[in-house]
Structures are given as C-alpha cells and as structure tokens.
Recover the amino acids of this structure.
C-alpha cells in the first residue's frame, strides 16, 4: 500500500462529455407543461375535436349545399303544405339535408350560418371582455388605494344585478344586430375577469421580483406587461375559455327574447326560438339547432374544465 | 357586525339608485315614441303624452319618477292602457315566486343529494353519473331543455299539460326546466365542498372518537359542506330569475318573466322599466339578506372585510 503514490491512489475519472449532455427528463416550460396535461385528458381532447368539427362546418357548411341561407321559397312550402304527403316532405331529405323552415329556407345552410355567427359572437365578445377585464383588474390591483376602491365598488354595484338585464336594456337602446350584441356583451361581461385578475395581481405584487423591478424604476406599464400579466396568464386563459360559452349562451338568450341578431342574419339561438314555434308540427326545426348548440356548449365547457385542470392540477378533485 | 351591516346597506342602496338612474335614462334614450302610430290623432297623442308625463323635459321626468318610486309607484303601462305597473307586478309575482321557490327546493334537495352521493362514491359510477348530469345541466341552455321537455312529455307523450299554471301537474315541467341548471351547479359545488370536509381533521377526530357513520355524515360532513352553498345563493337567485323569463314564456306561466318578455316585444317601456327596477330591488334585497346571514354564520366574512380580495 505504502508504495502506491498519490497518483495511483486517486484515479482521475474525468468528465464523460456524452454523459454531461444527458438529461433524464427534458425541462418543460410552463406552457408546454400545461399543454401536456391538457392533451393527456381524453375528454378534453375529444371536445377539441368536436369543437373543431363544428367550427369547420360553420366555415364550409353553408357552401356545401347549393341553397342560400337567406333565399326564401314560400311558393314551394305552401305547395307542399297543401297535401298530406307534402307536409312530411318538409323535413330532412336528399335535397334539403336538414329540411326547410316555414319560409322555405334551406335549414342546412341556416344551421351552419347560425353556428358561424354564434361562434363569432362567442369568441369576439369573450376576447374583448377579457382585454377590458385584464386591463381594469390590473390597474385596480397594482395601484390599489382609492383607484382600487372606486373600481371595485363600481364592479360590486354592477355585479349585484344580473348582467343580462343590462344587456337587454342596452340592446333595446342600440337596436338588434351584430355590433350592438358585441357592444352590449363586452360592456357588461368584463366584471368577473377584472375581479379575478385583481385578486391575482394583489398576490403577485408582493413577490420579490416585482419589488426588484420597482426598485429599478421600471415603468408600471412595463411591470404589468412583462411581469404581472404573463404570470396571470393561466387563470386568464381559463376564464376566457369559460366566457366563450357564456357569450354564446347570452346571444342565444337575447335571440330567444327577440332582440338578438336581426334578419337575414341568423344564429343558433334565433333558429331555436323559431323552432320552438314550429315544434308541434316540425320538431326537426327545433331539434337540429338544439343539438348543435348543445354539442357546442358541451365541448366548450369540457375544454374549459380541461384547461382549468391543466393550469392548476391542485384544483382537480 | 353593525359596521358590516351598514356597509352592506350603503352598497345596496347605492346599487338600486344607480340601476334606476341607468335604466331610466337608457329607456328614455330609445328612439321613437310609443304613441306614434297612425291610429293616434295629434290631439290624442298630446293628451296621452300629458297623461304619461312624456311632455315634460327628461330631467324633470326623472325626478318625478324617482319621487314616485319612493312612494312605491312604478308608473303606468303603455301597452295595457291605464294599468299601473305595480298592479301588474302584484298579480304576476305570486306565480313567479311559487315557481321560483319550487325550483329552488327541488334544486337544493336533488343537487345537494347528488353532490353528497358523488363525494361519498368518489371515482365510482355514481360519481361519474352525477358529473354527467352536472355538465349537461350547465351546458344545455334552459330554453332548449324547456322546449324539449315540453315536446316530449306534453306533445309526443301527453303526460303533462302543455302550458299554463293552474294545477300541480302544470307546475312539474316548468319546475324541472327551471331547476336543472341549478341542480347542476349545486351538485358540483356540493361535491367539491364535501370532498374537502371529508378530508378535514375534525371529521377524522369524529371518526376516531367512534361516532356512528350516520351521525358523522349528517352533523359533521353535510352540515359543514352546506355552509359555502350560502355564498352562491345570491347568484343562484339571479339565475333562477333569468331562467324564469324563458321557462315562463315557453310554458305560458302568467308570471313576471312572461310579462318581461312580452313587454320587450310590445315595446312597453314603462313596464320594462318598472319590472327591471323591481327585479333590481328584489335581487339586491336578497343579496343583502344572504350577506348578513353569511356574516352571522361565518364570522370570517365580516372580520375579513372584503370577501373578494
């Protein structure tokens, strides 16, 4: 033993360059982690597929048939209504895949056109609501003090009454149509987002990196955009995904009350409310749009649930 | 506690005031004149405008309206000539209230029951069944549910009457349609709340003390999971109210919701205004009562000051 030199006692292992590069598990960014969790949820993935299918049909559906969604054909309908056999022929057949409505308009074209407008209103309204809500919530939470008190009291006061009542009043002032609906929904729909973002900002505000940014005299807008909003992104996206079915539902509700889109535009809600009137004799006019809106709402709801679980696995019960 | 009540009271009064003001000026800014039809001569129109006070400047009308409000008057319906809005509310409110209470009771029993069963049978078929019911109840719009129920159970299989609201059989379909979204909400909420309580220390203590299962279930688990349910009672009242618009007009229940939908279609602005304000006052009062109750039951609420932050 004694004649062994230091050199022999300790063997130099060296660094295995190939091993050094080996990482057992790839580092996942937050977004990828969320995506991985989301896509491992089978129900959520299925819902995305259903939503995609409905969205594709909303885009190409109206072009698949040679009939226009606006063109009425009252003569053909009244001719068919004259005979017993003709009355049954109003329903779905090879010519009109979903049948025709009481004015002879092709229901296939109308249903997909209505889906298109429902989706447009849902996504546009939810997006604008989210932007307004995030901005107001951010300002309220970050500056605190009097600003916060005033904004939050205003939110409390507006929130005490169901927003659909405000929406109805606004719609009556503006008249029905695509833009009025969008305006009415965005004016009233930002409350919950603002409240949510404010709560999150209040929690984040006391983090060290915000303190550091403040000490470096970073402009508040930059702190919000660079640090605060990206850190709230999870709950913002979840809340956004919940706002979409809400907006679609609100539009359908307004259409049901008769103050939604104005003809010749149509939406699923409007098709259903006409369908209800024809239910007794022509149930397909109610059942087809109802099935589409139910599938749509179901898939959006499940996607929202999936996103919530993916963003915050702790919430999964 | 007194401070908490006063704070809530001030917010409630302010809310009602803001609502009335917004609704008044919004409705006044709607273009058009209720008496502009060709059936009115100039004299008749002038007389009607004078009768309804529409000839005065808007600001003066506002003060008159607000003054009348303090006396509990809501103006006169334009569509139902000469009928005070208050009389319409008085005649229609009982039906709406009846339907609302029925739906709330059904929703509470079924929703809470489903939620408890789901939590007790976690990740078993019963749990999944309750989740499916909840998701369907949340995602299918109430007018779809109501009209499909009407089609299936009153037209295809004439088990229940199609419409109106005169006997017990008449109440069943409207009650189910109105209760379904709330059943869904309650069962989901109850399930989460129940799962939390089942895991909590005091339940473990109760179990280790050797209390009977039934006793733990009712006096520890369900009792404590019910508490948070109170916090969504306010929004639930509001959603039942919005749901009643749809359900009442589909089943032709002569209630407030039906009048509201009708007044939109007949453009009866004084009725809309009166009903909106009535709804506002009703909801704000309900929220006030619920807030106070919640403050009594759960001291953390009033000590914490702001529930949301």
């Amino acid at each position: 033993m004694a004649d062994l030199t230091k050199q022999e006692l300790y063997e130099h292992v060296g660094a295995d360059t190939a091993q050094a590069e080996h990482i057992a598990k790839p580092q996942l960014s937050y977004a990828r982690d969320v995506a991985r969790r989301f896509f491992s949820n089978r129900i959520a993935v299925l819902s995305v597929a259903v939503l995609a299918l409905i969205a594709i049909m909303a885009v190409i559906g109206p072009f698949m048939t040679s009939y226009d969604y606006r063109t009425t054909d009252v003569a053909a309908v009244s001719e068919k209504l004259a005979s017993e056999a003709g009355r049954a022929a109003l329903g779905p057949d090879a010519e009109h895949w979903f049948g025709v409505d009481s004015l002879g308009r092709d229901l296939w074209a109308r249903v997909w056109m209505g889906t298109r407008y429902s989706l447009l209103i849902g996504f546009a309204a939810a997006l604008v609501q989210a932007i307004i809500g995030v901005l107001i919530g951010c300002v309220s939470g970050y500056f605190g003090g009097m600003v916060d008190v005033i904004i939050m009291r205003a939110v409390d006061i507006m929130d005490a009454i169901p927003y659909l009542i405000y929406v109805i009043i606004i719609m009556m002032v503006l008249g029905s149509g695509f833009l009025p609906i969008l305006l009415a929904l965005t004016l009233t729909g930002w409350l919950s987002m603002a409240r949510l973002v404010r709560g999150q900002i209040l929690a984040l505000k006391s983090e060290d990196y915000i303190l550091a940014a403040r000490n470096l005299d970073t402009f508040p807008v930059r702190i919000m955009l660079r640090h605060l909003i990206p850190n709230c992104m999870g709950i913002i996206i979840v809340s956004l995904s919940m706002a979409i079915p809400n907006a679609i539902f609100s539009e359908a509700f307004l259409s049901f009350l008769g103050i939604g889109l104005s003809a010749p535009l149509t939406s699923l809600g409007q098709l259903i409310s006409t369908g209800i009137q024809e239910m007794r004799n022509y149930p397909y006019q109610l059942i087809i749009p109802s099935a589409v809106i139910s599938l749509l709402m179901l898939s959006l709801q499940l996607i929202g649930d999936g996103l919530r679980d993916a963003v915050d696995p702790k919430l999964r019960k | 506690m007194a401070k908490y009540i006063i704070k809530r009271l001030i917010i409630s009064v302010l809310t009602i005031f803001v609502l009335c003001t917004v609704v008044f000026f919004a409705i006044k800014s709607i273009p058009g004149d209720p008496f502009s039809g060709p059936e009115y001569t100039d004299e008749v129109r002038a007389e009607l405008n004078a009768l309804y006070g529409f000839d005065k400047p808007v600001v003066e009308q506002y003060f008159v309206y607000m003054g009348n409000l303090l006396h509990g008057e809501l103006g006169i319906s334009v569509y139902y000539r000469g009928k005070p809005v208050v009389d319409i509310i008085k005649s229609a409110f009982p039906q709406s209230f009846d339907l609302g209470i029925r739906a709330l009771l059904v929703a509470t029993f079924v929703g809470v029951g489903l939620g408890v069963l789901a939590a007790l049978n976690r990740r078993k078929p019963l749990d999944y069944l309750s989740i499916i019911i909840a998701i369907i109840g949340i995602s299918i719009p109430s007018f779809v549910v109501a009209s499909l129920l009407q089609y299936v159970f009153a037209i295809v299989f004439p088990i229940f009457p199609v419409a109106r609201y005169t006997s017990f059989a008449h109440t069943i379909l409207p009650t189910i349609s109105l209760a379904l979204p709330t059943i869904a909400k309650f069962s989901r909420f109850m399930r989460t709340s129940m799962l939390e309580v089942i895991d909590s220390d005091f339940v473990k203590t109760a179990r280790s003390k050797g209390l009977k299962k039934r006793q733990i279930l009712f006096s520890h688990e369900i009792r404590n999971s019910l508490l948070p349910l109170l916090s969504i009672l306010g929004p639930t009242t509001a959603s039942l109210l919005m749901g009643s618009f749809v359900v009442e007009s589909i089943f032709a229940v002569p209630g407030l919701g039906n009048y509201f939908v009708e007044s939109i279609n007949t453009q009866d602005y004084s009725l809309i205004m009166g009903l909106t304000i009535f709804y506002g006052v009703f909801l704000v009062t309900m929220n006030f009562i619920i807030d106070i109750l919640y403050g009594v039951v759960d001291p953390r609420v009033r000590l914490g000051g702001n529930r949301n932050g």
About this structure: The CA atoms of residues 131 and 190 of chain A lie 8 Å apart. Residues 220-257 of chain A form the longest helix (38 residues).
